[in-house]
Design brief:
The protein contains 15 helices and seven strands. It is α/β, with parallel strands linked by helices and 338 residues long. Helix 13 runs parallel beside helix 14.
Length: 338
């Protein structure tokens, strides 16, 4: 058992006594419970349809085809031995079972990137201002609670916005932004690099320990941290022809990851005719080895102004890539276990 989960259970006494925040943490630390039939499950999550398909396959192998023969005493006992009540299995057979929880989202997942950019451009905006902007952009009227939920999914808080505004609109940063605009126009084939995060539960952000490890020792620290397998990082490049060199790995993105990535794909950048690579100010990007590998191929390096994500086109494109990689990595690679 994870020592962090053990500490939470000792502190609160049981899972039911935890607050909503710590219940979420407990699930991340590997919390499971057992129902009255002995099946392990996580509270707040329904069984997937794939799991019930596996139950049907197991039932047929045991000679209990409920679809054709109907319910028998032996069939009910067989379902209970697998940890499911007959009512749940019956709804699945009638195609009336849904493993979806919550209301259908009104806005697409790509709106999260829009929320981040708009909030950074309007750090003093109120919820009513955000509602008006959503209405003009997407033509949808959202409640105040829905606006809060979308902002939370986008990782936007008032404290973070104040910090961004304090550093983004300084005279030095504005002067650098004007110089950046003039320098970037001199290049014929610019290219942007960035990484993005995926969690197994969907398109939400991650709480990765060790994100942005500095120094060459990051490779050894990475192994010691043992990142949870339900967190992914996606690295990619984008130019006027589209995204390319998309890779994914488990855990956070450190200097070693970025250095090895650029070293592997510098020849591809040279063959595509890229003459400059634009990066943001993440600590894992500001290492001398990146400029070394690119300048060896005659490619310049430029850094975006601090907290100007709308100048990086990969921010919007990465939403579709994250969804594709999430499906490919988690749905297609995992076997259903009952």
């Amino acid at each position: 058992m994870d020592p962090r989960l053990l500490f939470l259970l000792m502190y609160f006494g049981s899972f039911n006594n935890m607050t909503k925040l710590y219940r979420k943490k407990a699930r991340e630390y590997g919390y499971t419970d057992t129902n009255s039939l002995g099946r392990s499950f996580v509270k707040g999550r329904r069984a997937s349809k794939d799991a019930l398909k596996q139950v049907e396959w197991n039932m047929k192998n045991q000679g209990h085809d409920v679809r054709q023969d109907g319910w028998t005493k032996e069939a009910r006992a067989a379902v209970k031995r697998q940890g499911y009540v007959p009512g749940t299995y019956d709804k699945f057979l009638q195609n009336a079972y849904s493993d979806y929880r919550g209301s259908q989202p009104i806005l697409p997942d790509s709106s999260l990137a829009w929320f981040r950019v708009w909030s950074c451009e309007n750090p003093k905006a109120k919820l009513s201002d955000v509602r008006t902007a959503v209405l003009l952009e997407y033509g949808a009227t959202l409640s105040r609670s829905s606006i809060r939920n979308y902002l939370q999914r986008a990782g936007i808080t008032r404290q973070r916005l104040r910090r961004i505004a304090a550093q983004r609109f300084t005279p030095e940063n504005l002067q650098y932004a004007q110089g950046f605009q003039q320098r970037i126009r001199k290049y014929a084939h610019p290219c942007w690099f960035d990484e993005s995060g995926i969690s197994q539960s969907g398109m939400q952000g991650r709480d990765n320990v060790g994100l942005g490890i500095r120094g060459a020792g990051g490779a050894y620290i990475r192994e010691a941290l043992q990142y949870p397998p339900d967190n992914l990082s996606v690295l990619g490049l984008i130019d006027k022809q589209g995204m390319f060199c998309v890779e994914s790995h488990v855990g956070g993105t450190d200097t070693v990851r970025v250095d090895e990535y650029i070293q592997r794909h510098v020849r591809t950048l040279h063959l595509r005719g890229v003459d400059v690579v634009v990066l943001d100010n993440c600590p894992s990007h500001r290492i001398a080895s990146i400029a070394f590998w690119l300048q060896m191929a005659g490619i310049a390096v430029e850094f975006l102004p601090r907290y100007w994500p709308q100048w990086n086109p990969i921010e919007v494109s990465s939403v579709s890539v994250r969804l594709f990689v999430w499906v490919a990595h988690f749905v297609l690679s995992f076997n259903v276990v009952v």
